[in-house]
Write a structure and sequence with these properties.
Blueprint (H helix, E strand, L loop, with lengths): L2 E5 L5 E5 L19 E2 L13 H5 L4 H9 L24
Antiparallel strand pairs: 1-2, 1-3
Length: 93
């Protein structure tokens, strides 16, 4: 059976050891104020393993940009840019 934590409107916090299908308490045991609300805490989650990010998330931006640049290329191929030749000025003698 789990332990649940409740808070009354006056700020008192108390715990109850009860079954999951038991109804919540109606009033605070300290000041008899109502309604009480269940206090929830975030769960600690640790993602471990070397493949988590590479398998569960989308592709990196670098590969997405490469796919956009050429419509003729296949998804895994990259195109190399041709180096430009410097223009030489011919002198008129």
């Amino acid at each position: 059976m789990p332990i649940y934590e409740y808070r009354c409107p006056n700020g008192h916090v108390f715990e109850l050891f009860q079954r999951m299908d038991d109804p919540p308490p109606g009033t605070c045991p300290t000041c008899e104020a109502s309604p009480v609300e269940k206090v929830l805490y975030p769960v600690a989650v640790h993602f471990k393993g070397s493949g988590f990010y590479s398998t569960d998330y989308g592709r990196s931006r670098k590969t997405a940009k490469e796919g956009e640049s050429g419509s003729d290329s296949k998804p895994g191929e990259t195109k190399k840019a041709e180096p430009k030749k410097p223009e030489t000025s011919k002198s008129a003698d």
